[in-house]
Amino acid sequence: GAGVSQTPSNKVTEKGKYVELRCDPISGHTALYWYRQSLGQGPEFLIYFQGTGAADDSGLPNDRFFAVRPEGSVSTLKIQRTERGDSAVYLCASSLDTLFEQFFGPGTRLTVL
Amino acid sequence: TQLLEQSPQFLSIQEGENLTVYCNSSSVFSSLQWYRQEPGEGPVLLVTVVTGGEVKKLKRLTFQFGDARKDSSLHITAAQPGDTGLYLCAGEGTGANNLFFGTGTRLTVIP
Q1: What's the CA gap between A74 and A60, in Å, rounded?
Q2: Any idea of the CA torsion for B6, B12, B16, B21, to the nearest 10 degrees?
Q3: Residues B44, B85, B2, A54: is their CA dihedral positive or negative?
Q4: Could you tell me the CA-to-CA distances from B100 to A14, A39, A97 in Å, in that order?
Q5: Radius of gyration of chain A (CA)
Q6: Among candidates A90, A48, A45, A53, which has minimal Cα distance to A69?
Q7: What tens-digit pLDDT sequence spans chain A (113 residues)?
Q8: B95 touches chain A (CB under 8 A)
């Protein structure tokens, strides 16, 4: 497909477990963003990649959250020792370059029991 | 701390009615964007307003950016059930390369 894809679409895990969420950006897009959207809220910025490097990770809530983009395309958001408060929809977006329109994926709904 | 407050939070109207959604902040933004999000999907960009006082029209949707670039409004004329969704305003975040979203307005248009 031509859009941003995210897998899995839903993830249910137990408190304390480790999870990985994957984002496939639009081909050729150099910028990639992760956001978190809690129920009834707008998305909240987590981290931004330009190419392979994390250019801005100021939105990551704590050191349990980490993201990588080793080849400048696919990105993985990793959450260690999950907590119930981590339950949310995790959205990924990509853009052609910095300051261009961001295109969002459908999100991964994470539920921590 | 940046804050984009949207009002109303929820809006339920009959098909054919007009409505206005507001996005307000105490901060100045160089631009504001409006998105619509449907259940199970990510936000989709509707419009970007850049200049204070700017008005943009997109079919039945009219977007306005306040003169001081602190607020914006979205007006929908003759709402249709297909307009149902979550409307989000967003400005540039603390870094120039991320978006800071408002609290959202959930619109339901009843046939």
Answers
A1: 19
A2: 0
A3: negative
A4: 30, 17, 18
A5: 13
A6: A53
A7: 589 999 999 999 999 999 999 999 999 999 999 999 999 899 999 999 999 999 899 999 999 999 999 999 999 999 999 999 999 999 999 999 877 889 999 999 999 99
A8: yes
How many A-B residue pairs are in contact by the CB < 8 A criterion?
61
- To test the contact with chain B by mutation, choose from A9, A36, A48 the residue with the greatest count of B C-beta atoms within 10 A, namely A48
**How far, in whole angstroms, is CA B40 from its chain's centroid?**
19
Give the tokens for residue B93.
């975040």
Tokens, residue A54? 């994390």
How far apart (Å, rounded) are the C-alpha atoms in residues A12 and B9? 29
Both tokens of residue B78?
Answer: 């003759």
Residue type at position B60? R
